[in-house]
Amino acid sequence: MSIEIGGSDFDQLAIRFAQYQLNIFTPMHDSRFGIGAKGLSGEGYKGHSFWDTEVFMLPFFIYTMPEVARSLLEYRFKTLGGARKKAKDNGYIGAQFPWESALTGEEVTPVWGAVDIITGKSTKIWSGFIEQHITCDITYALWQYYQITGDQKFMDDMGYEIMFDTATFWTSRLDWLEDRNMWGICNVIGPDEYKEHIDNNAFTNYMAVENIKLAIRYYEDLEASNPELLAKLSDKLNLVEARQMWLDRVDNIYLHNLAQKIR
């Protein structure tokens, strides 16, 4: 689908170049694969998939080629096993998607990077350990896809399961903030990767809360519209216990007052 905009010829050329890149490096033929970082422009990141797909590139496909957007989300569903393994290995429950994802969905971020020219030691890559907002990014993306396409079959077959299990991860991931008498999310890397080991990153906290609220909302929707499917998912994901944890914690998670900070 062509996207036409007003303005200079250069602006239209830039849009078409971006569309061209998105079309040539997206694996439209096979939902076992996601979009590799760097596309076809280089070998960096070894073709692994990041949050860039869901947050930056998926919206283009949702509006222009929804069948491709669905395929990219199917990739995340097919790698739920790896996400659940990562959560379990880290002492959590539910599904924790990896920062770098490949075929199996297990974490493939390297532990060590290049040698620091000052210290002479390899630099530890913390993203695979604590850059965790990828999990709520994926839930946000599938919700956005559903809002725009109305693809109920996708939600029934895949979407609800991802949404519920990621919400369960976040509630198990929360840290108790004794000084605030509420829950928080400590020791993370937010979208700004230059700041590591941050407590209560605004983006991460807000997106995690939204993830949990979506799970609560759609659990209630399924109670009314499709109790049979809800019962099936409940048996698989232990949703009675999980939902209670969502409800107990979601309204007591620390969120920055962003409006105040902007003023």
TrEMBL record:
Residues in a coiled coil are: none
Q: What is its EC number?
A: 2.4.1.64, 2.4.1.8
- State one Pfam family annotation: Glyco_hydro_65m
What GO molecular functions are on record for this protein? alpha,alpha-trehalose phosphorylase activity; maltose phosphorylase activity
Q: Does the keyword Transferase apply?
A: yes
Give the Glycoside hydrolase family 65 central catalytic domain ranges.
16-253
Q: What class of enzyme is it?
A: transferase
Keywords of this entry: Glycosyltransferase, Transferase
Q: What is this protein called?
A: Maltose phosphorylase / trehalose phosphorylase
Give the organism the record lists: Vibrio variabilis
What is the taxonomic lineage of the source species? Answer: Bacteria, Pseudomonadati, Pseudomonadota, Gammaproteobacteria, Vibrionales
